[in-house]
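User: I want to check something. If I give you two sequences, will you return the structure for each one separately, not as a complex?

Assistant: Yes, each is folded on its own. Here is the first sequence with its structure:
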Amino acid sequence: MSAPEFELQPGQDLSGEESVMDSTEKPIQKWKSNVIRDPNALTQTPKYEKHDTVLMAIQQNGVRTRGTFTVHQSQLNRGRGFIEYQLKQVDGDGTLYMGGEWFRERDLKSGRRG
């Protein structure tokens, strides 16, 4: 048996040609430049109120542990669209945790360690 023989045909360079589209096809956009954040959207309501007890993972002496805090204040981060909280440590001296740094709502859990 002999190997099948193929005729050599010259290749076509399609990079210079424009593709032909049907009138029903729409080009696929790479970016959605017409998508904006609605300035009149309903604002989020905070999950925790002032003086609520919350839990958050913290690092003490290189060991990851869970800290117990009370909510001091909350705010809506309008630029990013999420709620942030300032916390006080339950067994602390009443000062704000980490100098008043803001923590995201997703990092907190409700309840008391038990």
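And separately, the second sequence with its own structure:
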Amino acid sequence: MDETSDNNTASRSSLSTGTTSISINLLRNDSAYTIDRSPPNVVQNFLSESVITKSSNVTWENAFRNISYILCWYFFSTALSFYNKHLMGKDYFNLNLPIFVSALHTGMHFVITFAMMKGYLSFIYKKPEEKFVSSNSYLNRVVPCALGAAFEICMANASLVFITLSFYTMIKSSTPVWVLMFAFIFRLEQPRMILVFLISIISIGVVMTVFGETQFNLIGFLLVLGASIISGLRWSLTQMLLQKEEAMNNPIATLYYLSPIMFCAMLLLSFLFENPFNVFNTSSHFSDFFTGVQTVGLMFIGGFLAFCMTVAEFALIKNTSTVTLSVAGISKEVVIISLSVLIDNDKLTSLNLLGLFVSISGIAGYNYYKVTRGNDVAKHYQYTKVNH
């Protein structure tokens, strides 16, 4: 005989897929669902269909959002790479102030994020609830992350003075190896042989693309290699920062706290290694007022590109992981290498092209692994029964 419960009792089903967790409550009362006292498998089948339908919608929504972040990151990062090379490369504009330019960009980031956080730009960004970082968290989490970002960006930009963009991109593609190592060290990713194997395949492809480099420069090579290693460290620190610090739960807040430290560190490095005031007095790029204004204007264009790219990076890391970002970055770097050949006439040998194919194969294998692993997790959800 069928009965309807008079009390509000609930059956909850939980499903986790990657970083997304979904919980659904089904109330057994007159205003919600009335469930017969049928065999347990009927109720479980009903629950599973409800959860899977909801999970599918949320999964597609997350996928669309993450793809949007990746595409934005691709565009602004690629544009910034060509901007930096053409602004600072010896064969182009040859503005030999890579660290000072980086400092100017981070200074712009602080001004923009300060205005957003204080509500001065509410017509394009809703003022968030203001939260504060404790002094302990600031010293132990924010400062190391900001210093790592400052050193990585300065070394990467400085290397473009000495090497081609394609060679820079190929060496920088080793970043996933360092990201993975630091992710293992900080326990952000669980070590798995298949994951190590796929990242190794990508790295082998990168080495193959570099092997035929004819314009090798040791200083440029060491700078970009050091930037790759520091990049692995700083993105692991960034992921821990975004996941644990409530006051930095969005990209704008993260930049708001990081950019002042980065600006000070970069400015100090510029004074130590570049002597910018001497460049202002001697460089043809600052020979008169009008030329100087044009040069400064070019610097600010890069600041806008860097701001948009960084916001997309932080948003992608918060919704996925640093390993996902680094592997997605490999495919972006393949695009940059291809554009370098078309735009800057960089030369690639058959071995370079084979290396690109190997890298793409590793990326495809990693993506397949992540998708199938996510499906396996979805199939093993568990029911939590509530007594009534």
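Because they were folded independently, the notes below concern the second chain alone. The first strand starts at residue 10 and ends at 17. The chain is about 70% helix and 5% strand.
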